[in-house]
Protein: protein-tyrosine-phosphatase
Amino acid sequence: MKNEKVLVHCQAGISRSSSIVLAYLIRYHNDSLEKAYEYLLERRPIAAPNYNFLIQLIRYEKELKNKSQLDDKQNPIKPVQTTFDY
Structure:
C-alpha cells in the first residue's frame, strides 16, 4: 500500500491509536519520538498515550536506533567518494 490514506482509531482516539501512529512514525519515517509526538499533536491535540505505552515507545525508539547503528557497522559496503580534489 503506497500513498494511501489509512484511518487508525480506537474507542476514544486518545491513547491506543496514538501509540500505534507514533510507533509507525518512529519506524517508517525515522522520526524521533519527540518529533513524532509533536507532529501527532498538531493533527490530534487530544492524543495522549498512557504512561506504559510511552515507556514502550521509548524502548522501541532506542531499539531501532541501536539496530540501525549495528547495521551500519556490519555493512561491508562503504560509501564511494563522489567528489575529487584536483
Summary: The CA atoms of residues 7 and 17 lie 10 Å apart. The first helix runs from residue 16 to 28. The domain at 16-74 is CATH 3.90.190.10 (Protein-Tyrosine Phosphatase; Chain A).
